[in-house]
Design a protein that fits this description.
Strand order of the largest sheet of chain B: 2-3-1-4
Distance between the termini of chain B: 43 Å
Number of domains of chain B: 2
Largest sheet of chain A: 6 strands, mixed
Number of helices of chain A: 14
Number of strands of chain A: 19
Strand content of chain B: 5-15%
Strand order of the largest sheet of chain A: 11-10-16-15-9-12
Radius of gyration of chain B: 24 Å
Shape of chain B: elongated
Largest sheet of chain B: 4 strands, antiparallel
Structural class of chain B: alpha+beta
CATH topology of the largest domain in chain B: Multidrug efflux transporter AcrB transmembrane fold
Largest interface: A-B, 76 and 76 residues
Number of helices of chain B: 11
Oligomer: heterodimer
């Protein structure tokens, strides 16, 4: 018989391929694709954000209300109020029933996206109930989530995270995997910041104190500035009465960067687009000696007095920023505002020290467990035990090679899966060896016993492994992060163990038995 | 070397009453504990909440850590040692979740620093919001349900060589679950319902092996969950992974015994003889059953003692599962098959 049969060449080919795939993980060689470690092993942050995208719908309705008001003013149609209700309806009260046709004309021409579920005509007024169609609202929600994803991706890119994984989950969740984050708080701050920048005038005609007591003047609201006492670290909230009208917002920015004032205190310098600069010019010219509040996410950052008209379209946002805070704010403003606020609903952060510990303890238990099983197999099955041990080592190489080749992620439960495979992989060999021993006891020759043992054990091994494979597939489908890693190594381990037990170890036996005509078998 | 002599003849089926009694005690103990604790002791993965693992370079009093948390307004937190006492590692848990997310690490470490005088290394933070917890719970139950479903189809088909019946079973099971879900039943009821339907179907279709396997599976999973409840251990995503693996593993054991039973009982219908053949089959596969469990237990014990705290509970669940799974393939699955045979 030849030494190199096709079967042996294929087996060697598979094992060599696995070794080649596995090598880059330990050495810097081709094909340069390492086994990637999960966040629980290399340290990092897993976040799930919920985009409050119903806020984007509210904002759209609010915008429509403003446009309607403007349009009615332009066409000289009098109304007794246009308002958004809690359930995102717009109620328009026309003062004169005669203007009904004119208003309907406006609706069909300019606001064709609005549905008109009901119109109530009274003697001296007409009530229109308007809303967005379901599809339209759903579309706005979907767009908000997608836009939030893009914005967050831009922020993360500028923040500098290597190999972030950011994806949409369901209709309003965003999943972020950020390996190697050193300052989780800072990253969360940057990601979660809505970065809604607005410029609004401070209302100095009314009293802040009385507004605080619950009756702010129409068109104004109370917002706060947070001041931190450098010495005690206590923050105090200073109320400001600001006009609700937004004169200019962050969408017209072209650039934002960190600058320093004369005391070397960091601040964020912003530049407006040409359109933004024109508006800023006009607003400042019209409001000299008024205070202009710079508001970020409903918090007043500063409210400087406008001393003169400001041309050129540049402004500065000051506050008690640390350098990192100023940097992050600049990044957020450059990347743009989130279309709707986001909320962190799940966080899993593993520090780098714990990750390193997990790798160490995981590998340790794998080595010790593996060594014990290998020693046991040799003690119990002697020569056959060595074959099982070769199969076991090849099995682990195959799992490693498979992980690298498929670009799968190794997690701590994944290591547990490999350890479990070590224990279970010998099972296939045990089934075969026990069968061979039985056949030998019945007086068969070594060759016949081996052949019968493999033949009769094959079906049993398949049956037994399919069930664990089913569990692994289901786990892979439903699991997240680390658990998926477990499913992957368990599944790979089962497939590899069937290969090593049924094909590899059989082939080793054939090799031994073809040259040997002895009547004993070391088992 | 040989642990189990080739001529071993243990009368396992004769001792099945002891087996049933033992199983019954474990199941009842688990059940009582589960009822008393109102369900499993869900960890933050399912219940929602926040878990923070911190490490110091020297000993710190737990009461000081708690004081620090109190100052920050986190009053419901529990603090406990994590791992070896000499690791100076502690675990903080609180039921609060989303409102904690902001600047969490910084405020925790300054808060604890003021009372203990030491800056902790924040090694791990896990925060799961209530909605996410609920989603994960449903996902986990679905995973258990689907793996049971697929395994059911596989054993009734592959094992009894009745793929048509397997298809019918699967269809019936899906329909039953669909109707149950119409009534908006919660997941645990749904799964119990599915189990009852499966068992009833197998019984009426006389799929003896399938009944034996499924009963053994439920037995193993339930006892593992019960022991976790008795010992007040956290039920987390990892434990679900362990349970599913146990399902696969337990079946693995059972199938190997069944395979031998089927081989040995071909054509035999006499009940008394059957009992002997069952015993013979169990004894013949005993060596393999013990060996495989042994190697698996060895590696699991390594994982349990050396693998670190994070994987501790997973390893523990697997150890229980493998132990119970081995026991059930001998003392539960086979006697069930025999009992089902006796019905005919």
């Amino acid at each position: 018989m030849k030494l190199f049969t096709l079967k042996r060449l294929v087996i060697s080919g598979i094992v060599i391929a696995a070794v080649v795939c596995l090598l880059p993980t330990f050495l810097n060689t081709w094909p340069h694709k390492k086994i990637s470690l999960g966040l629980d092993l290399q340290g990092g942050m897993h976040l799930v954000l919920q985009v409050q995208n119903e806020k984007a719908v509210e904002a759209e309705i609010e915008r429509t209300v403003q446009e309607l008001k403007k349009e009615l003013r332009g066409q000289d149609i009098k109304h007794l109020g246009i308002a958004r209700t809690q359930d995102n309806q717009i109620i328009v009260k026309l003062a004169d029933p005669d203007t009904k046709a004119a208003f309907e004309n406006i609706l069909s021409k300019t606001f064709s996206n609005l549905m008109v579920p009901s119109v109530t005509t009274g003697t001296d007024s007409v009530d229109f109930q308007l809303n967005l169609s379901k599809d339209e609202a759903a579309n706005i929600r979907k767009m908000a989530t997608e836009q939030a994803l893009e914005t967050i991706r831009n922020r993360i890119d500028e923040f500098g995270v290597s190999e972030p994984d950011i994806r949409i989950q369901g209709d309003k969740r965003i999943l972020l995997q950020l390996p190697g984050i050193k300052d989780p708080d800072r990253a969360k701050g940057l990601i979660g910041k809505t970065a809604q920048l607005t410029f609004q005038l401070v209302n100095d005609d009314a009293d802040v104190a009385s507004a605080l007591n619950g009756n702010p003047p129409v068109g104004s609201e109370v917002l706060y500035q947070e001041r931190e006492d450098a010495a005690t670290g206590q923050t105090t909230k200073v109320p400001f009465l600001v006009k609700k009208q937004i004169l200019l917002d962050g969408s017209l920015l072209t650039n934002a960067r960190v600058e320093f004032d004369q005391f070397q205190q960091p601040l964020v310098g912003i530049e407006f687009s040409r359109k933004g600069a024109r508006i800023f010019d006009r607003v400042t010219a019209k409001n000299v000696n008024n205070r202009l509040a710079i508001i970020l996410d409903n918090t007043v950052y500063s409210a400087p007095n406008i001393q003169e008209r400001i041309a050129g379209g540049k402004a500065r946002i000051t506050g008690q920023f640390s350098l990192n805070e100023a940097k992050d704010l600049a990044i957020a403003l450059r990347a743009g505002a989130l279309p709707a606020p986001v909320k962190i609903i799940e966080e899993r952060t593993v520090g780098p020290t714990l990750g390193a510990d997990s790798v160490r303890t995981g590998l340790m238990s794998m080595l010790v467990g593996g060594a014990l099983v290998i020693a046991f197999m040799v003690l119990y099955y002697k020569g056959a035990g060595i074959i099982a041990d070769i199969a076991l080592v090849v099995n682990i190489i195959l799992i490693g090679g498979g992980l690298a080749a498929f670009g799968a992620t190794l997690t701590l439960p994944g290591i547990a899966g490999i350890i479990l495979t070590i224990g279970m992989a010998v099972d296939a060999n045990v089934i075969i060896f026990e069968r061979i021993r039985e056949e030998l006891r019945m007086g068969k020759s070594p060759l016949a016993a081996v052949n019968a043992g493999y033949e009769r054990a094959t079906l049993t091994i398949m049956d037994a492994n399919v069930t664990t494979l089913i569990a692994a597939v289901v786990l892979f489908q439903f699991g997240t992060g680390p658990i998926k890693g477990f499913a992957v190594t368990l599944g790979l381990g089962i497939v590899a163990s069937m290969f090593t037990a049924l094909i590899l170890s059989k082939s080793i036996y054939d090799l031994i038995l073809q040259n040997k005509r002895s009547s004993t078998l070391s088992i | 070397m040989q642990f189990i002599k080739a001529d071993t003849r243990i009368d396992f089926l004769g001792k099945r009453k002891f087996g049933f009694a033992f199983s019954l005690i474990l199941i009842l103990a688990g059940l009582v504990s589960l009822i008393a604790n109102k369900g499993p002791n869900y960890g933050i993965d399912f219940a929602g909440g926040t878990l923070i693992q911190i490490k110091f370079t020297q000993e710190v009093a737990i009461s000081d850590i708690r004081d620090g948390l109190d100052h920050m307004g986190i009053k419901d937190a529990s603090v406990q040692n994590f791992g070896q006492k000499t690791d100076y590692e502690y675990l903080i848990r609180t039921a609060r979740a989303e409102e904690m997310a902001d600047k969490l690490a910084k405020s925790i470490s300054t808060g604890i620093q003021t009372t203990t005088g030491q800056t902790p290394d924040i090694r791990r933070v896990e925060m799961v919001g209530p909605q996410v917890g609920k989603d994960l719970k449903n996902k986990a139950l679905l995973a258990i349900f689907y793996s049971l479903l697929f395994i059911t189809i596989y054993i009734s088909g592959r094992f009894e060589q009745k793929w048509t019946i397997a298809g019918i079973t699967a269809g019936a099971l899906m329909t039953a679950v669909y109707f149950l879900s119409v009534f908006n039943l919660s997941m645990p009821f749904l799964i119990t319902g599915a189990m009852v339907v499966t068992l009833a179907l197998f019984w009426s279709l006389r799929l003896q092996y399938a009944i034996g396997a499924i009963v053994a599976l439920i037995h193993d999973v339930f006892i593992t969950v019960g022991i976790f409840s008795l010992l007040d251990l956290d039920f987390s995503l990892q434990i679900i992974a362990a349970l599913l693996t146990i399902i696969g593993y337990s079946l693995n054991d059972t199938i190997i015994v069944f395979d031998r039973i089927r081989e040995n009982t071909k054509g035999e219908t006499d009940n008394a003889a059957l009992s002997d053949l069952f015993n013979k089959s169990i004894n013949e596969t005993l060596s393999r059953t013990i060996l495989t469990s042994l190697t698996t237990l060895v590696v699991l014990l390594c994982l349990f003692f050396l693998g670190g705290e994070i994987i501790h509970n997973f390893a523990f669940a697997m150890i229980i599962g493998v132990g119970i799974g081995t026991y059930s393939s001998i003392f539960v699955a086979s006697p069930m098959v025999l009992a089902a045979h006796g019905k005919e």
